[in-house]
Amino acid sequence: MTVDLVPSSVPGGRLAALHRRAESLLAAIPSSLPLLALRIGLAVPFFKSGLTKWDGFLTLSNGARYLFQQEFKLHILGSQFPYPMPLTMATAAGIGEIVLPILLVLGLFTRYAALGILAMTAVIQLTIPDGWANFHLPWAAMALTLVVFGGGRIGLDPLITPRRMP
To answer: Which residue in 8, 27, 37, 156 could disulfide with 13, CB within 3.0 to 4.6 Å?
Structure first.
């Protein structure tokens, strides 16, 4: 039972009561809904990027080959370094950008998929440092949230992981 410190008959009391009611309604939203939204929101840009890397089953597109071999550089400590094994890196990125978003949307191995995307985001940040504020920081925050909290109850993880008893 809560004690009403500001009666609704006092000016501003109605506003406080309305605020408490709104807070209660917002707090009643199941946490699984925003976690599902995070999973989908994070999956979409990575999946779309992954689609551009392939010309067929495990056949890298010419664009992906060119980018990883010629354009992309790792920006470390003020210097630029070419990607080591650029075609292997392009293949790994392409596979990760398809598989990890699918796992996120399904809510399957969500924490690991989010951790993989967080690692990919770190490499992307080293490759394109100017994208931090607009893309990389939100992606990292979304992925880190999913690593910490998991994917929620809307997904396949709860079906394969037994619930822990308190």
So the answer is: 8
